[in-house]
Known about the structure:
Blueprint: E1 4-11, H1 14-24, E2 28-34, E3 42-47, E4 56-61, E5 74-83, H2 87-96, E6 101-107, E7 110-116, E8 122-128, E9 142-149, H3 152-160, E10 165-170, E11 173-177, E12 182-187, E13 201-208, H4 211-220, E14 225-228, E15 232-238, E16 244-252, E17 265-266, H5 275-280, E18 301-304, E19 313-317, H6 328-334, E20 339-343, E21 347-349, E22 352-354, E23 358-360, E24 363-364, H7 366-387, E25 394-399, H8 401-412, E26 419-423, E27 441-447, H9 456-465, E28 469-475, H10 483-494
Amino acid sequence: MTGLHHVTAITRDVQANVDFWMGFVGLSLVKQTAGFEDAEQLHLFYGDANGTPGSLVSFLVWQDGAPGRVGHGQVAEIALAIPRMRIGDWLTRAMQRGLSVQGPSHEFGAPVLRLRDPDGIIVKLVGVDIPDTGWPASPTRMHGVTLWSQNAGATAAFLAGFGYALQGAEGGVTRLASDGDVIDIRDTAGFVPGIPGTGVIDHVALRVQDVDAIHAHRAVLTDVTVHDRLYFTSLYVRDPAGILIELATEGPGMTVDEDDPGRTLMVPPHMTDSIDLRLRLPQFARPGEERTPMRDLPFIHRIHAPDDADGSVILLLHGTGGSESDLMPLAHRIAPRATLLGLRGRSTEEGVARFFRRLSPVSFDQDDIRSEAAVFADFWDSAMAAYGLDPARLTVLGYSNGANFAGAVMALHPELIMRAILIRPMLVLNAVPDADLSGVRVLTLRGALDPYEQYAPALNDWLAASGADLDDRQVAAGHEIAPEDLSAASAWLTEPAP
C-alpha cells in the first residue's frame, strides 16, 4: 500500500483546534503526546477511531505562538474524502457553524468544498466514490494534499520514487496518484517562500511498509534523519524544492500503548514524565466536556486548574525570556490546590518576552512601565470577572522582571495586589509615588550571590514605608530560583495574616 501516512501542522490555540477537528470535522483524537523532540510541545493526532495510517492529521501546539506564512516549499492544503453525495450536507453543516466556505467547485472531476480551520489552514472536503454510511459521518481518510513547489517537475519526479504516478494536470496543478490518494503540486515559482509558524503545515508523511523499507530508502537518499517515534519509524528528507517529506512505517500503530487511544497524555519513553512537564502543557476539553472558556484579554495568558482546586489563585509573572507557563511548576509546589494564572509579558527585547522595556541592565523605560501597568490593571479587572476569581484569595508570584513589574504595579495601582511573593526584585521606577499599602502582605526573596542584590533594598524600603507587611529574606543563591525560594514561599503562604 502506497500513499499518505499523516500530515502535521502547527496550531496556536489547542482548544479551538480540538473544537474544529473533533467537533466540526468529527475525527477522533487518537493520540496526545508530549513532543518527541521537545517534550514541552503538545502533539495531537486525529484520525479514524483506530488511528489508521492515511486518516491521520496531527498538530504541534505552539500555544499563542507567532503565525507563519504559507509559501513555496510547503504543504498548503489538506484534503479529506467524503461521499460524493454528501457535499450539500457538509455545506449546510459549515454554514450552520458560521464557517466561511468556498464552493462547491469542481477539481479533477470531483466536487470540492474549501474552508479554513481556526489557524487559517485550508481544508478541502472532496466528494469521491466511497461508501455512504449515513449522516452525520466523519471523513474516514485523507484524499490528498497540495504542495506549493518552485520546481514542480523535480517535486513530481521525486515523489515518483514513493509510488506516486502522474494522473493529470488542471489549472496550473499537476496531480499525482498513489493506490489510495493524491498529491497535487502547484507551480509557485516566483512566489514568496514559506515561513514556519502557527497556521502552517510542517510536513507530509508517506507510508512505507516497515523499518526495512526505511533503511532501503535511507541508503539511496541524502541528508536524511531517522527517528523512532514509538508509533512508527520516521525518515525525514527534503525534496528538490525544499518541501519536508517524512516516510513513516505502517506500525506498530497508535494503539500500541493505549487500550482507549487518545484519552491519556503520553510521554515519550526517552523523556522524563513529571508534574512539571504536565503543568507546562496546555489543557483542553473535548467537545461536550466541561471547560474554562478562554477570554480575549490584553495579556496572553494560560490557566491551569487542578482537579481538587481550593479556590485560591496564584498569578504568575515570568522573568526575562520566560512565558506564561514558566512558573507553573514552582507555583504548583508552593500551593498544589491553587488555580494558576500565568501571563506573558507584552514587551520584547531581542525576541524575548518582558513586562517592560529596559534601557540598560539597571535602567528602564519609565513610560513603558506605566503604560503596561495600566494595561495590567485592565487585565486584572477583566480576568477577575471573566474567570470568577476571588481577588481576596489571589497571590501574585513574580520572578526577576516579573517581580519588578509587580512592584511597579503596587506603586501605580495600589488597590490591586494584596499579597505578593517577589523573587529577586528591584525598584524600577525612578520616581515612586506615595501609596497606602496597609493590609498588603509581601515576601521578597533576595539572592545572597545575586549581582543585582544591591538594588533590592530600595524596593524593600519603599514597601515598608508605604505600610506593607513586609517579610524580607535572603537565600543562599544567585539570580536563579533556588530550592530555598520554594520552601520560604510555601511556609510564608500558609502563615496566618497578622
